[in-house]
Amino acid sequence: MVAYNYIFAFLLLALFITIGEGKNVLFMPVDDLRPEMLEAYDQKYIHTPNLDRLAKESFVFQRAYCQHAVCIPSRNSFMTGRRPDTTHVWIGFGNANFRVTGPDWISLPEHFKKNGYTTLGGGKTFHPNSPPNWDEPKSWSQDQPYFPFSLAKCPNTTTAHKLGAYVADIDTWCPLDEKEYPDSYHYDWQLANHTIHTLKYLKDKGGPWFVAPEPIPIEIQQSIRHAYYASVSWVDSQIGRVLQALDDMSLADDTLVVLFGDHGFQLGEHDSWAKMTNWELAVRVPLIIRAPWKPASAGKRSHAFVELVDLYRTISELVGAPSPGDDIEGVSFASLFDSPDLNAHEAALALNKTPAAYSQYTRCLKSIDAPKQWDNNSCSETSKNKFMGYSVRVPNWRYTAWMEWDDSRLKAKWESEPYAVELYDHHKSDGADGTENDFNQCEIENVADKNPEVVKELQNQLKSFFN
Ligand SMILES: *[C@@H]1O[C@H](CO)[C@@H](O)[C@H](O)[C@H]1NC(C)=O
Ligand SMILES: *[C@@H]1O[C@H](CO)[C@@H](O)[C@H](O)[C@H]1NC(C)=O
Ligand SMILES: *[C@@H]1O[C@H](CO)[C@@H](O)[C@H](O)[C@H]1NC(C)=O
């Protein structure tokens, strides 16, 4: 058996502690996790017994979306309750972290800390160095140092380098023999261990808490998928250890468990790997929330459109913490836990919004008339010809408009026509025919030319939302 020390940063175990009557929060963003597991999302080919159990006891969101499909902007967004156009943290241009834009903003863990909670973190809550030093001391209580994220280096062996030519960062992605490298060799194990110790500490201390801890030729493609799925099972086992500790310490009944992916992931679909696109595969995330004091929600699935930027308000409301300031974006969807059966339209009405989720992604073209504009257009490679792709998912459609970017105003040129548009038909995946979690059928064909009136309507919707 080979264990994979792969792409996952796993648990962003965020524990908020509150003193007194309060509920606790165990906040777990998992790096690169797709909504792909049995109980919550219907796929039968990955072994995830712990996530399955959690899903049975939780409210599972089928239509949850990140705001920017790569770690730094996504995490800066959900950790501050603000969209990328507000944080000015995009990939490749803008600022490296939200503190440059909002030095005094109150981050999600900081909000709990300011309200009497002990907030301890470890792993990838924020991305390393974005903000610097995990936003210590602002975001975290000083009882214990932040447990920093680190990746073990791959040993220099032949097996370790087998995927070398296809995997960007061979130093941290490799198969390992589990006899030689026991569980405790892996960072995820260490973080789970640390988290369990932290839970003990917090339980003894008393009071409410917030804890945030955190895995190309056809044969190689299969190896990578295999490795990815093995990583999901590995992360599942580490999450299982933390959840078991909550049970063993009788903390589960008073602890909100929030498990989600920081963005989605392509495993070769659309000839694309990893995230960094505006497609459903990259922006849709798993979101599983267990609130034992909201029994109506247990084991239910929601088709409400929710966004990671909503978590700040939603978590605050679900645990009875003071509501955040007006400058926090997003909408609390806590009320859905009492009416879990609302469909997407009814849920949006109940939340006083439209059923929609918004994401965005940057592109920089080397040359405006390059023959293959999709080649090498990452903004980290070139800073010329900048575009922002704004994307909206509504019931039955995804629409993306690539808008020219004005660097001097840090804003898209909404007064101009989009440079290019994409429209994808989701009638099938949003239907009740059980295909909503089919990873291969969505977004194969751009149907913008065939549906000009839908394009027009959704362009207006994007513009009025973002402009
Ligand atoms: C790894 O092994 C190869 C082949 O033996 C060798 O050329 C290389 O220098 C080694 N790299 C490190 C970092 O030790
Ligand atoms: C588990 O975590 C505790 C607390 O951080 C630490 O003291 C201990 O050394 C860890 N165990 C291992 C095997 O790393
Ligand atoms: C993209 O970059 C790769 C590696 O730098 C290079 O081999 C390739 O020719 C580039 N493609 C284009 C269209 O510039």
Automatic annotation (TrEMBL):
Keyword line: Calcium, Hydrolase, Metal-binding, Signal
InterPro entries linked: Alkaline_phosphatase_core_sf (IPR017850), IDS (IPR035874), Sulfatase_N (IPR000917)
GO molecular function terms noted in the UniProt entry: iduronate-2-sulfatase activity; metal ion binding
Family designation: Belongs to the sulfatase family.
Domain Sulfatase N-terminal residues, every copy: 23-320
Regions that span the bilayer: none
Gene3D superfamilies: Alkaline Phosphatase, subunit A
Keyword Metal-binding listed: yes
Coiled-coil spans in chain: none
The protein's name in its UniProt record: Sulfatase N-terminal domain-containing protein
Signal sequence bounds: 1-22
Organism annotation: Amphimedon queenslandica
Pfam families associated with the record: Sulfatase
One CC-aspect GO term: cytoplasm
Cofactors that this protein relies on: Ca(2+)
